[in-house]
């Protein structure tokens, strides 16, 4: 089994031929051959994962090339899965590459996922993320989740039991899907090409760790990575009970709207106008961005509590009745609101600014004058 191709990893203490054999027997489905999927596919193929599936219905565009490193200019307008399959087979002809040139839909996702042991979600839209998550929960498939927004990336492992036997999924972090257009994607916000490369490579590493049993995979943890500062922090995820997921295939197929099963959570998402109204009441507004992030807000109005320092903030005494959390894009503020809700329960009113400062830039520019 230990060929020259894999020699450098086989000789690693704690890895060896046993881990390489596990990789050779594994079947991994990578959904999305984009900025995250491309590096993940390359490293999974190079590592010797026995069977890799690629699911994507898109074609290569010129604007993809700065981050989707499996493709080049000659590939424009060609199907991504066809090109990716060809390149990966040249990289490692010893493994099986299966292309699925399809857009994921509720009607066929269950059949697709059944053929694989692990699922890596590299998609860039919320509808797909919730669909993939719910299907993996139903089938009991480990899910490696990876995403980017602006200069930040996220990584987590869902649907795998931790030492306490708990299994968390994407809805334990974001039980309520955002409305269409509510949170801008890379096409609107932009993305620096190296960021999805970093997150995609990290996702491949987490997949390899899961398959081989080495290290400490991000089970029931969300890793947040900031490219500009190289800051990283991890938050523990706890199982929630404020959502419902189909327990059988018949119920799953009846779920035509990905937001239908979202129930009320312990915090509320608000817009800038509602934030202005709350400022007139007993309210603390907490900026959970890191200290270097712009725009810098008036600290007489906005309490600074970066996520890297957030546990210390939660240990402090909060007198205000209302707590509002804000960040750049409305992602970290949700995590902060959830953490605050776990501590305070119903004793305080907890809010997260939807879309973050980037979505309400004019409001904050006025507020800082």
UniProtKB/TrEMBL annotation:
Transmembrane segments: none annotated. InterPro entries: Rhodanese-like_dom, Rhodanese-like_dom_sf, ThiF/MoeB/HesA, ThiF_NAD_FAD-bd, Ubiquitin-activating_enz. Coiled coil: none annotated. It holds the Pfam family ThiF. It comes from the Bacteria. Residues 324-369 form the Rhodanese domain. CDD domains: ThiF_MoeB_HesA_family (cd00757). This is Molybdopterin biosynthesis protein. It comes from Pedobacter gandavensis.
């Amino acid at each position: 089994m230990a060929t020259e191709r894999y020699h450098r990893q086989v000789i690693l203490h704690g890895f060896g031929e046993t881990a390489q054999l596990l990789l050779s027997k594994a079947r991994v489905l990578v959904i999305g051959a984009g900025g995250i999927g491309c590096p993940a596919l390359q490293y999974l193929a190079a590592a010797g994962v026995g069977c890799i599936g690629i699911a994507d219905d898109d074609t290569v565009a010129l604007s993809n090339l700065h981050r989707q490193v499996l493709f080049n200019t000659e590939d424009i307008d060609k199907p991504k899965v066809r090109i990716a399959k060809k390149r990966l087979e040249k990289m490692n002809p010893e493994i099986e590459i299966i292309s699925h040139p399809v857009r994921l839909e509720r009607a066929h996702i269950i059949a697709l996922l059944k053929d694989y042991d692990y699922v890596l979600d590299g998609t860039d839209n919320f509808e797909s993320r919730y669909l993939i998550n719910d299907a993996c929960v139903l089938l009991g498939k480990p899910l490696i989740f990876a995403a980017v927004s602006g200069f930040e990336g996220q990584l987590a492992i869902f649907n795998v039991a931790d030492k306490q036997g708990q299994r968390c999924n994407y809805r334990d972090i974001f039980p309520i899907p955002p409305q269409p257009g509510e949170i801008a994607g890379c096409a609107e916000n932009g993305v620096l090409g190296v960021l999805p490369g970093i997150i995609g490579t990290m996702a491949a590493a987490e997949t390899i760790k899961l398959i081989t049993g080495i290290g400490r995979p991000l089970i029931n943890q969300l890793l947040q990575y900031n490219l500009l500062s190289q800051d990283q922090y991890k938050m523990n995820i706890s199982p929630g009970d404020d959502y419902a997921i189909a327990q059988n295939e018949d119920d799953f197929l009846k779920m035509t709207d990905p937001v239908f099963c979202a129930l009320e959570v312990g915090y509320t998402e608000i817009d800038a106008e509602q934030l202005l109204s709350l400022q007139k009441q007993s309210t603390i507004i907490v900026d959970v961005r890191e200290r270097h992030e712009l725009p810098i807000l008036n600290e007489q109005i906005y309490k600074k509590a970066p996520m890297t320092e957030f546990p210390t903030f939660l240990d402090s005494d909060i007198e205000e009745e209302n707590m509002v959390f804000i960040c750049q894009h409305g992602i970290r503020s949700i995590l902060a609101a959830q953490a605050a809700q776990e501590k305070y329960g119903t004793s305080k009113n907890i809010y997260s600014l939807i879309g973050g400062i980037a979505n309400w830039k004019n409001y904050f520019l006025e507020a800082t004058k």
